[in-house]
Known about the structure:
Layout: E1 7-11, H1 21-32, E2 41-45, H2 51-58, E3 64-67, H3 84-89, E4 94-97, H4 100-105, H5 110-123, E5 126-131, H6 135-139, H7 143-154, E6 164-168, H8 182-200, H9 202-205, E7 209-213, H10 218-225, E8 232-235, H11 242-249
Helix pairs in contact: 1-2, 1-11, 5-7, 7-8, 10-11
Bound molecules: 2-phosphoglycolic acid (PGA).
Amino acid sequence: MTSIMPLVAGNWKMFGLKADLVEMRQVRDKLAEGDYTPKCDIMFCPPATLLGEAHGVLQGSAVQLGGQNCHGEESGAHTGDVSAEMLKECGASAVIVGHSERRMAYQESDEIVRTKAHAAHRAGLKAIICLGESEAQRKNGETLDIITSQLKGSLPDTATQDNTIIAYEPIWAIGTGLTPTAQDIAEVHKSMRATLIGLKGQDIGAALALLYGGSVKPGNAAELMAIENVNGALVGGASLKAQDFLGIIEVYR
Ligand code: PGA
């Protein structure tokens, strides 16, 4: 069995001003304590406006930095957009692509998400590709079909275990306090694993990290992170406060 280094990644979404970097500093300082050595990677994905400053906070620490979105092109006349190369220059080593909030608000299709993931690879960033079904799709029993088709459509040919992470985030579980049952998550992650092995072969498919995201909190993290084929968490709300985020990281000590 391949051993996968788990990742706990915090997605700050459109939250956070400079003053909030105090939370990031607290996490960094806790991780610098000699006896505090969780067996997982840790990442913050703050808003693009904070990347430069956050890079200064995290530089020299084990905590990684990621963006929340990128454009597919390297540069161009795309007002308001940010390229993967720009994120990289700010100190990011990864970028979230295809978050359901963007798929819904900006009609980002699997094809667009795949282009963005490819752009991440081009820039030398890890792509954290998000997938997830809606409440109606789950009720209709379509979850596995939806996730499989999103995964196949969103994964660029360039994906390997070194440059790609998949995050399963049921849309109805994001920011709602609701989570699927452990059995439901296990079923989706097993199916994603099988799809990845089918697409990329055993060596890559079995080695790609699969995150769960959607209302992960200190109180449920241990149960969620113990599920087979769950290799970490993509955390929204609970990543904004150092104590909560550390409570999730604690699971990997
Ligand atoms: P949540 O968000 O942890 O606040 O549910 C997760 C996400 O959207 O990545």
